[in-house]
Design brief:
40% helix; 103 residues; 3 helices; three-stranded antiparallel sheet; alpha+beta
Length: 103
């Protein structure tokens, strides 16, 4: 009986190695959080379904030291809701400015 328990324990240990190695691989691939550069969000106005109106934004005001790494301009659920509520008279767009990380 003791020999059978030893065999079962050995078999159980052998079958757990693949799962343990996958677990270590997954845990090892997680990175430490890096301090991210600031992100700024703005609404740029537009009127008459976005045809009229000129929204200007200077990204140097948001990222004076390092500059902008990425700028996204588009509609969100909030801006679409405002456009629907105002029947297309006021149609803003959201601008998201991602600054570069400072060295």
């Amino acid at each position: 009986m003791a020999e059978r328990n030893v065999q079962l324990a050995a078999r159980s240990a052998r079958s757990s190695w693949p799962m343990l190695s996958v677990l270590l691989l997954v845990v090892g691939c997680t990175g430490t959080p890096v301090a991210s550069a600031p992100t700024r969000e703005h609404w740029v106005p537009g009127y008459v379904l976005g045809i009229w109106g000129k929204g200007e934004l200077d990204v140097r005001d948001d990222c004076p030291a390092a500059g902008a790494a990425r700028v996204r301009i588009g509609a969100t659920w909030a801006t679409l809701l405002v456009s629907v509520v105002t029947l297309g008279i006021y149609t803003p767009h959201e601008v998201i400015v991602h600054c570069r990380a400072q060295p």
